Amino acid sequence: xSAGSSKEPMNEQVIANMYSSMHSEVNQIHSxxxxxxxxxxxxxxxxxxxxxxxxxxRCYRMIGGVLVERTIKEVLPAVxxxxxxxxxxxxxxxxxxxxxxxxxxxxxLKYKIKMKRGGEALSKEEEAAEQKGTSQGVLVGPAxxxxx
Length: 148
Fold this sequence. Notes:
Layout: H1 12-50, E1 58-63, E2 66-71, H2 72-110, H3 124-132
Antiparallel strand pairs: 1-2
Helix pairs in contact: 1-2
C-alpha cells in the first residue's frame, strides 16, 4: 500500500509533510508573483521614460544578454508587449495561488488541522489541551500602565 492511497489512513508525519509542502508551494508562487510584479514595475518605468521622447531617437535594448541598438519606435511596442505578457503570467499565478490556498483549507478541514498563532500546526495533544483549557497562560495588564 502506498502513502498516497485514499483508503489507507495516513500517519501524522505524512500529513504534516504534505501540509508543509503545500505551504512551501504557496510561498514559491507568492515569491514568483512578487518577482514578476517588480519586472512589470520596471517595464512601466521604461515606458514612462521613453514615451514622450522623439520616436526616431536611438535607444539600446538588452536582448538575450546582447545590447542591441534600435529606435524608440521599434522598442516601445516590444517593451509594452513584454509588460502585457508579464501581467498575464501574474494573473495565472494569482489564480493558481487561490486554487492552492483552497486546496490547503480543504486539507485542513479533512485532517482537522488547526493553526497556532505562530503559523505552526497544532498536534492532537496540544489541540486536546487547548480544548480542555489546561494550558497555562500569562495575564498581562493594559499597555501604558506602570506598576510600582
